[in-house]
Amino acid sequence: MKLNMAAEPFGIIYLTTNLINNKVYPGQTTKNDPTYLGSGIILKKAKKKYGKKNFKRETICTCSNQKELNLKEIYYIAYYKKLVGAKNMYNITDGGGGTLGHNHTEETKKKMSKVRMGIKFSDEIKRNMSKAMKGKKHPNMLGHHHSEETKKKISKASKGNKYFLGKTHTEETKRKMRKSHFNKGKPLSNEHKRKLSESHRGEKNSLAILTEKQVIQIRNIKGKTQKEIAKMFNVSRGCISGIIYKHSWNHI
Hints:
The protein is mainly alpha-helical.
């Protein structure tokens, strides 16, 4: 006689939530330990700061092997990043044994897509997701509500021009705006183009990291390689090459 017994799951995907600030940590485990909250570096610091009693863990789904665990962990970390924002999570990797900034192969992406199709949320997870989505749509406002005082200030600021909240332009500013709008699309004269070019040339350019004196000095250096000169002025070799061959700073 065969007993119809449900096999123990290989592991689970869980969600640990900080009950004080609502930050979350989706992860995986094969440990049969309901008190296990996760081992992430940032999560460990948070547990030490807030105390384990202020965290709760819930099971998102069960998995039958390590491969399934990895794929579902990757999916849920990405899912919660989109749901609550990375700033509201304790995860610093993409999951699945990967590292921060890891790019998944096309094969892995296809598998993750299949995993997503078969995912079913528990009633408890659905309730928590619904609760998190209430309030403002902005990720950093999930679950939060403005106070009456804040609402009044927002309302007051919103009156008037909706593109210039709570403020009005002076007549002088309005005149300049009308003139600017009238000239929009008008071809620039050669003189205007020349002045614009000169205003962004050399040291006048806000992105310039060298002075004209240094550029002249660089062009007069003999007996050193471009790499050595670049090190002297703390710039790239390409920058030095551009100066020497006058691809840049060609006005001096």
